[in-house]
Design brief:
Glutaredoxin; five-stranded mixed sheet; two-stranded antiparallel sheet; 203 residues; single chain; globular; alpha/beta
Length: 203
């Protein structure tokens, strides 16, 4: 084969590649799951993977048991959401509180906090774990995870995660209406499939 013919053939291949449609990565291949396969430890000292919570709606908040202000207010907001849910939806949702300070908040501290906030054991998970794993979870939710001497880290958002692990809504916790959040939870409960993500929505 002559060098001229080879050059022409290579040029033709390059031209054909330029005309070929661009390859796009399916959205599902890059979509973040907010219930990843990361192990945590609940208030009963039971190790669970967050991925095991997929299959039904999960309302997620962050807290620190030593926080007597914002964290307790956010916990009460989540409790109000749970109280506003229709019975069927209430039985099908997980209320997940994740500590921002796993070094201080071990299972016993989480259990004491749950009791002080009148949180039922059924349907509520208060999660701690290794510092590395909790940082990974915080990073996924966009929560600051830098080491700091300020243990009173306040996360003033709630995250409604759809059964497939995608984000359905993000709420400004202080302004969120418990009834509106409960309606969103109930809509996920009754939907045949999870809706597309609508991040940073507020009520």
């Amino acid at each position: 084969m002559s060098s001229a013919f080879t050059a022409i053939a290579l040029a033709a291949v390059a031209f054909a590649m330029c005309l070929a449609p661009a390859v796009t990565i399916p959205a599902f291949a890059t979509r973040i799951t907010y219930l990843p396969d990361i192990p945590v430890i609940d208030q009963n000292s039971t190790s669970i993977s967050l991925s095991s919570l997929r299959g039904k709606p999960v309302l997620v908040g962050f807290m620190h048991t030593m926080c007597k202000g914002v964290c307790q207010m956010m916990t009460r907001k989540m409790r109000s959401v749970a109280s506003a849910l229709p019975p069927a939806a209430a039985a099908d949702v997980t209320m997940l509180l994740i500590t921002t300070d796993p070094a201080d908040d071990r299972p016993q501290q989480l259990m004491d906090y749950a009791r002080s906030q009148d949180l039922p054991n059924n349907g509520w998970i208060l999660a701690t774990g290794s510092r590395a794993n909790i940082k990974r979870v915080m990073r996924i939710y966009g929560v600051s995870h830098e080491d700091t001497d300020d243990s009173m880290m306040h996360v003033m958002k709630m995250f409604l995660v759809a059964p497939d692990g995608s984000i359905a809504h993000v709420y400004s916790g202080m302004n969120a209406s418990p009834r509106a959040v409960a309606a969103d939870v109930a809509s996920l409960h009754s939907a045949p499939t999870a809706p597309s993500a609508k991040a940073d929505s507020t009520h």
